[in-house]
Amino acid sequence: MNVGNERRPYAHASELEEIRALARPLETVSGPLDDLVELCSPARFVCLGEASHGTQEYYQWRAALSRRLIEEHTFSWIGVEGDWPDCWRINCWVRGQTDQDLDARQLLAGFERWPTWMWANQVVAEFLTWLRDWNLARAENQRTGFYGLDVYSLWDSLREIFGWLDANTPEAVPAALKAWQCFVPFREDPQRYAASTRLVPQSCEADVVALLAEVHRQTLGRVEDDPAAFDAVQNAIVAANAERYYRTMIRGDQQSWNIRDHHMSDTIDRLARHHGPGSKGLVWAHNTHIGDARATDMALGGMVNIGQLMRRRHHGSVVLVGFASYQGSVTAARSWGSPEQVMNVPEAMPGSHEDLLHSALQSPSTLIFGADRAGRWLPSWRGHRAIGVVYDPHRERGNYVPTAMGQRYDALLWFPRTTALEPLHHEHVPTEPELETEPTGF
Predict the structure, then answer these.
(1) Cα(399)–Cα(420) distance, integer angstroms
(2) What is the mean pLDDT for each group of 10 consecutive residues in the chain (442 residues)?
């Protein structure tokens, strides 16, 4: 992938001056975040990114900003790039409803699908501990929820649907059983299922769509007042969209990415409706999902993402915040499904946005882009580093997404040097096949 504008790869003096004028020091949680909190506070949706899934500083400052927005500006839910069933258990815990005999670390030990370190890490454990304490000091209708936005949990979501139907409408269990039996031959291996649909033009699509319709019928009029019914409906939507995602992904085109980001954006809208018209939400995901795809070369491939879709659907009510760093270390894996490692992140490529920011700023900073983005740097196209859960520092050039920074985000948190995220436990050897999906930070 092209690193950036090859005709003008290095810094112009006016670009460095522009960056310095936008920047504020980021040294403590209170003062330096004030401008960013002020920017975010009126928005209904604040989307907070990360340039990797394994960097301590990104997680720490995202949590710090989220905490202030919850405390000071009544943000009432968080949607993260995680699986719905796992995050629903967290949601019930932070609301004081279930698993109250566990602490946050024990709760996060339940994350088993690779890569577990994305959520089972020290920073998230500390944030969830605070969030639970915050919630328990408030009435139930004033508590902040925690939800998963992703589409990967096909089998787990089917199991959750079975549980709800069995407890509430056992006469509807046969519809769920039919969908489950369709998937049984593939032994919970989505890659095997996807490959079969390519060889034989038959799929489980009709069965999961019928299941979704049945769950909608059984939960009609119950979703607003019954959290368990809301959970069942979302699991049915996940199952239907996951089946479509895996079936599309095997073709090797970008439409699987679009299915996933449409699903996450639709889930965000569903959460906003569930929490009411006055609710405000936070979204935690990778920069490649948060930063507007129209300001990257993703648009050339017909790809969309959360940032683009949310801006289009909720014009004027969305703030997009990106994260970036120059060098340091990161927690990632060498290949899909393999154990995590602490890896070196080399100095940014010459001519990239990170290289320019490093030349201008010597310390961690916040940059608020403001309404006028017609300077020299903000509209310029340069490479912007994106590290996924799979990373190879020796193939660094492929980690840069051509980006117009001022169109992609509304603000940026910048770190000259970052450190690797601290997992709560090492990755276990998968007992099920791990399907290599579209990596975030591709």
Answers:
(1) 17
(2) 45 90 81 90 98 98 97 97 96 97 95 91 98 97 97 91 91 82 76 66 80 90 90 94 86 84 98 95 98 96 96 98 98 92 96 96 95 93 96 91 97 98 82 47 36
Query: Of 209, 207, 196, 187, nearest to 247 (Cα)?
Result: 196
Per-residue pLDDT, 442? 37
Give the three-class secondary structure for 420: strand
Six token digits for residue 16: 């460095």
Task: Using DSSP bridges, classify how beta strands 23-25 and 340-345 pair: parallel, antiparallel or unpaired.
Answer: unpaired
Residue 315 neighbours by CB under 8 Å, 6+ apart: none
Buried b (16+ CB within 10 A) or exposed e, 61-73: bbbbbbbbbbeee
- Identity of the amino acid at 184: V
pTM comes to: 0.92
* Amino acid letter, residue 123: V
Residue 337 and residue 434 in contact, taking contact as beta carbons nearer than 8 Å: yes
Q: DSSP 3-state assignment of 25?
A: strand
302: tokens are: 């017909």
CB atoms within 10 A of CB 373: 15
> What amino acid is encoded at 194 in this protein?
A
Q: Which two tokens stand for residue 199?
A: 């060889």
Query: Which long-range contacts does 64-70 make (Cβ < 8 Å, 24+ apart)?
Result: 64/29, 64/33, 65/33, 65/36, 65/37, 65/40, 65/321, 66/127, 66/282, 66/284, 67/127, 67/130, 68/29, 68/33, 68/37, 69/37, 69/40, 69/41, 69/280, 69/282, 70/131, 70/134, 70/144, 70/282
Q: How far is Cα 152 from Cα 194, in angstroms, rounded to an integer?
A: 13
- Confidence (pLDDT) at 3: 44
Rounded Cα–Cα distance for residues 65 and 301 (Å)? 33
